[in-house]
Design brief:
- The longest helix has 44 residues.
- The protein is mainly alpha-helical.
- It contains 23 helices and 4 strands.
- The chain has a two-stranded antiparallel sheet with strand order 1-2. The protein has a two-stranded antiparallel ribbon with strand order 3-4.
Length: 606
Amino acid sequence: MSETPHTQGDGGKTSRFAVILISVVLCVYLVLLALGLPQKWTAAQHAHHDVAINQKSEESDATAKEEATLTQNSVDAETEDATAEAETAITVAEEESVEEEALQKEADTESETAVPPLWTATPFAILLLCIAAFPLIPHVEHWWESNRHRFYVAAGLGVAVLAYYAFICDFPIDLHWPAHKVVSPDDGAFAMASATFINAIVGEYISFIVLLFALFSITGGIRISGDLKASPGVNTLILAIGASLASLVGTTGAAMLLIRLLLDTNKERKYKVHTVVFFIFCVCNIGGCLLPIGDPPLFLGYLRGVSFLWTLSLWREWLFVSGILLAIFFVIDKFIFYPKETPLNKALDNAVHQPLRISGLWPNLPCLVGVVLAVMLLDPAQEFLALFNVKTNWYPPMFLREFVQMLMVLLSFLLGSKEIREKNNFNFAPILEVAALFFGIFICMQAPLQILNAKGAQIAETVHQYGSKIKLNEPKEFFWISGSLSSVLDNAPTYVVFFETARAASENELKDAVKEGNIEKQKEIEAILQEGRDQAGVGVPLKLLIAVSLGSVFMGAMTYIGNGPNFMVKAIAEQSGVKMPSFFGYIGYSVCLLLPVLIIMTLVFL
């Protein structure tokens, strides 16, 4: 997905409009809060959650009692040597087993019909192909640069999906917001379409886009400037700082903060294309894997229940890949490209020197901290301060997290420097592009996600049939398949697809074990899923969750279209006079420099 920077800032008029719009949104939420609606939404969510837990507890107790009764009966039978009774019990059990199998087959048949047909994934595929291909087609690329045109395409495909659920879908669907509810075709076309829309937009899109908007807007008020000596050591240090910042302020935020500093530092050098390429590797992608706010795929996982701090467990892989890439860059820059610089270029670099200067930290740094704390502490699905093992018995009202993030943006605009934003050429075009495209992506994803939830195991088996070495239950294969698609599509929806595939395949494998009566396999799968719940907060095998997280984040760097900041950095560099590689030229860099590192990483960690 490309970002289209503008040479001019968006001006005071647009900033004033943004302040007014944000203020209106905040006032509307305060009114809703006074009416108690967000509190009711949160209460409804937890009431359903408590009912589900109680049901599982009752089922578990009933199963335990039944097993205890069967065990006691078995002991009594052996003690009394009731051979005839045992034979009768076996016969009855066989009859019950046959009856259960028949009921299961009937349930499976009903389940198979209650899944959208495969063609409903077509709008999702078309939208991803548009994102990948339109920027590369000469006759379309300028038309596609308009965010209005992007929204037309995304919204149009989203309407097609809503039309399917409104007029064609003939089975009930689950409404997930604010609490679980089943909506059937008998409720009407509007109810079916609105349930799908609410699941996509209200349930996930709003939280997703508000976080990106907050990070984008606040970092736009911070400026890191200077013309340092463009030595290999200094360039490596800038890349290392960017890779560390990316998880804290997002890959887009870190890229915006540091790309101009990197370009200003290297403006006297002739050979600097490789520096920008490594910047895309390290800052725009690899660096964002440690926190959900670092990269969009991980935030979508957070919205699906992955614990906020779980991604910190990926620090070994992050340090390994980042460290090797930084070492490769330093060696290449020091021994290959820097010696090629002419004495004149080196003299100019040494003569023109401006010290590093950071401006705009107030109030933007406290606002960034506020955004991070809001995401960490104000999740309506978790008890307040639960991360610190503090018992508060209070759950944040729905959308209070987003309210605080927008409040931080408002403070950034009101208290921050307008001059700094103008020097940064700050404008809303990049975030509007993300908002326009993902509006359609979140709606179009609904049908594919339902298909994956119901048929994840079948899809894995189908893929396996194409080659005995391809298995979607192995982390290495999961990493490379999800990562490869993240390279040529967009890594956020690709993460969601394989996250749901991992969950569905594991759950279906558990159901099969229960159906077969394989108690040993059942306990093994249950232990694996419980490990995922205990450590990451979701019933997904940890090894698969790690693989899809790393694949979607790391391999988004393989092409310009793998992650949003990639194209933005390319465009800013070209605007500064750097002749960046073509689409396939960049792939040549990534295949030669990044791909071997990722291969080594999979051999070491996966």
